[in-house]
Design goal:
With about 300 residues, this protein is α/β, with parallel strands linked by helices. About 40% of the residues lie in helices and about 15% in strands.
Length: about 300
């Protein structure tokens, strides 16, 4: 792992580079509140073995990356109420700002053109990059993502309430870990004991590395601040692969069908039984689809 300063953005990002610097680059962008260590090593290794250099990093406000400038913004409870009432509010930053962060990381690493793969919030950031910087983005893979929360069916109220809850401020490590294990089990529709054990191990590693719940809330505000980015997404022209879980309870499958309507040139692949998580059982298919898509751009 390494830290890179981006003075023009007023922040630093923590990143890792896997594979030879002489290979085509794939930048992986993780979802809301999740760190670079949330990327399954099996997926990274598959991409490297397929001939790519893989860059993973902590988005701003999470992990070992800094928060960056935080101008005065609407307090989160008021922002949530404004979002529910379809009113505007002032976020600390937007999805587009996170896209520019990623471009600045590529600049600092002297990477001119690259493919992007984004999960959930990371998919939104990747979409913004592809729309705003077509000269830089060779191809896009958008996984379990949407063109904004108002372009997707709402999750169940019970799940949404659970998703928005945070552990008490005075909770000890085991309580915090238990909270996120239960949450991710619900989001991922996870029932297999081995998968749940792997989830617990991954979350333990993440929480011991860094824990910034306020940053995760600010990232959520960035998602809510632009509830429908359909017009921007419809301008994407690079080769695009949309991957979604058939049983995603947080960003239901309708979000992927909406993306496919906006991007008629895109390919949509639905993974049976997959929820809002990257389970080990789905990784071989996710890797195969992503690598096939990346290779098709080079033919």
């Amino acid at each position: 792992m390494a830290r890179i300063d981006l003075p023009q953005r007023g922040l630093h990002l923590e990143y890792e580079s896997h594979g030879s610097s002489k290979r085509p680059v794939v930048i992986l962008i993780m979802g809301l509140g999740l760190q670079l260590v949330s990327w399954p090593p099996m997926l990274i290794d598959a991409l490297v073995d397929a001939g790519y250099r893989v860059i993973v990093f902590d988005n701003r406000d999470i992990g070992l990356s800094s928060s960056g400038p935080l101008p005065q913004y609407t307090p989160p409870p008021r922002a949530m109420l404004a979002h529910l009432l379809h009113h505007g509010f002032t976020p600390p930053y937007r999805i587009a700002d996170m896209a520019v962060d990623t471009l600045a990381l590529a600049d600092a690493l002297h990477i001119e053109r690259f493919a992007v793969v984004g999960v959930s919030l990371g998919g939104m950031v990747a979409q913004s990059m592809a729309a705003r910087s077509p000269e830089r983005v060779r191809s896009l893979v958008s996984i379990m993502s949407s063109a904004g929360p108002r372009t997707a069916p709402w999750p169940s109220p019970t799940l949404l309430w659970r998703f928005l809850q945070r552990p008490p401020k005075n909770a000890d490590f085991d309580a915090i870990l238990g909270h996120f294990v239960v949450l991710m089990q619900a989001l991922g529709n996870l029932h297999d004991p081995e998968e749940i054990a792997a989830l617990r191990e991954r979350l333990t590693r993440s929480l011991k590395r860094a824990y910034n719940p306020a940053g995760a809330v600010r990232q959520l505000m960035a998602v809510m601040a632009d509830p429908d980015r359909s017009a921007e997404v419809a301008t994407i022209r690079c080769p695009t692969l949309i991957i979604h879980g058939a049983d995603d309870p947080l960003v239901p499958l309708g979000a992927a069908h909406h993306l496919a309507k906006l991007l008629p040139q895109a390919r949509l692949e639905v993974i049976p039984n997959m929820g809002h998580y990257l389970p080990a059982s789905a990784l071989p298919e996710l890797a195969r689809l992503t690598i096939e898509h990346l290779h098709s751009i080079e033919i």
